Amino acid sequence: MDKDIENLLEDCLLYLGYEKFREEIEKLHLKIKEEDVLTIIVNEGIHPNSPVHERGEIYIASRGNIDFSSQEIVEKEFKEILLSIAKKLKSKPWKKVYLVPFGPAVLSMQIKLLVYRILYIETIDFLYAGHGKYYDLDIDLRTIAAES
After folding, report:
1. C-alpha torsion angle, residues 92, 119, 80, 55 (rounded to 10)
2. What is the pTM assigned to this prediction?
3. Complete DSSP assignment for 104-139
4. What is the SS3 assignment for 51?
């Protein structure tokens, strides 16, 4: 190992202490590992965000209330949201996509299908199970389809 790097490591260990140094290195490693991870939050503001949602790059698909006054308006708003997400999905070779489905279930379903159509990967779906419990549902639908 380069002597300058060894000295830097020793200085960091002395300054931070072993536990804090290890914690910072793990955070950095996780950040580097999640460069190709995208989290899509559907309808931010409907439910409070949690640090649990913060994986990789955060993309807010929509905010606040959606106008349901007519089918045409809903379809127009959904198409705008989906077009924006499609551009984001094509911006980089994402390896993992988390979906936080706040807001209308139909919009979340459309986003999940769009991710599959563009990236050929399943989303990992966030589920709030109540009482402070959160789950990442990573269900391989191809396996289910093949086993049926």
Report:
1. -60
2. 0.74
3. -HHHHHHHHHHHHHHHS-PPEEEEEEETTEEEEE--
4. helix
Residues 6+ apart with CB under 8 A from 107: 42, 43, 61, 62, 66, 78, 81
The CA distance from 121 to 95, in Å, is 8
Kindly report, residue by residue over 125-144, the tens digit of the pLDDT: 998 887 878 888 999 888 99
Strand partners, 63: 44
For residue 68, give the nearest of 78, 81, 82, 57 by alpha carbon.
78
In this structure, what are the phi and psi dihedrals at residue 118, rounded to the nearest 5 degrees? -90, -45
**pLDDT (tens digit per residue) in 35-58:** 799 999 998 766 555 666 678 899
Write out pLDDT tens, residues 3-35.
776 777 787 778 878 787 777 776 665 555 567
- Nearest by Cα to 36 from 55, 56, 58: 56
Instruction: Give the whole-angstrom CA distance, residue 24 versus residue 1.
Output: 21
Taking the CB of residue 78, how many other CB atoms lie within 10 A of it? 17
